[in-house]
Amino acid sequence: MAEHRAKAPLAGVRVVDFTQVVAGPYCTMMLADMGAEVVKIERAGHGDDLRRTVPYAGREGHQDYFNALNRSKKSVALDLKHGEHRALALRLIARADVVVENFSPGTVERLGVGWEAVKDLNPRLVYCSLSGFGQSGPYRNRLALDPIIQAVSGIMSVTGFSDAQPTMVGAPLADVIAGMFAAYAIVNALRLVTASGGGQYIDMSMQDALLAAVGTRMGETLQAGIAPARLGNENPLRVPANTYRTADDVYIAVMVHDQEQWKPFCEALEAPEWLDDPRFRTMPLRVRNRPAMNELVARRFAQRDFGDWSVRLDRHRIPYARVNDYARALDDPQVAHRGLVREVEHPGSGRIRLVGPPWRMSRTHTEIKPPPILGQHTREVLDEWLGASDPSHAHAHGAGSGSKGRGS
Which domains does the chain have, with CATH numbers? Predict the structure, then answer.
């Protein structure tokens, strides 16, 4: 007999989503993946700024960056500067469980949909404001993008090689981590909501989120006041731990994690003489003699192809991986086995591939739906949330595009 499937964890939770670009939409995408009904309020005639970014080469006319962050959401097109549309937004908020916004601090207050304006409408509401530096403090009004947060948080200072300038991580790390922490805080806050109240306001800062994420590697600075140097692809506490080029020009990342792996590593590389070398007998000695160790290991890896090394390293259970580009990473056999890359039918772009949610639950299947086109669900959401007889519908229907019929 097939195992009974449980409902999605956030099934029945309604989210009004005022976010755009990356951090906020990543948060609400996680909530949608958990089963929440996420209604994305987009500016009529304009939409999320990501809809207007320069398209990828060969993908003109498609909103691929937007689509990567907005699956399983519904799009409602409203102009919050228009009184009638603002009234509709407030009525949606009154029926929601969660509101998420990532405007610059003060913007939602000026638009009339900030926490102070809505908390009495809905005492059960969890309201999250996600911004670069938070809703208070000396940086409150600074503009923040992912590279700016990577810079101020210190992560750039330890990324890159010692003889080069500080380097940002090549993905929107601050945006994504802030979105994840925001979703985490929202789910926790929802547990405190009761039938009569318990809602609260969440102030989430990208700067705070990234510092919290990298804080686990800041012990040296927190306790001793030492700012670590950039080491490229090396590890400050472990040697060998680096990327090396093989004979067929493939880069391989390898780490000898502890002293127990040292002997198997030497056996895998057919270098038993390293075991007796007084410079390399312990991890502290190898850290101290890092340049000499790296030179020997690099020479050895350059003698064989990646395939040969992978067999040897697997046999001796040494942590390693090929340094993949994005295409190879997505086509990795383990990724295929896990089913992480999902396909959906988009109403404008046809069949598209998305990187789906990374968790696997034994009883809950995570269904994903296509990202919406602008205004696709305006009529559906207003009818279902507010009632089909609402006299304001006619005006709102004209605000968005693609609002006829039900979206998937």
Answer: 14-215+337-397 (3.40.50.10540), 241-323 (3.30.1540.10)
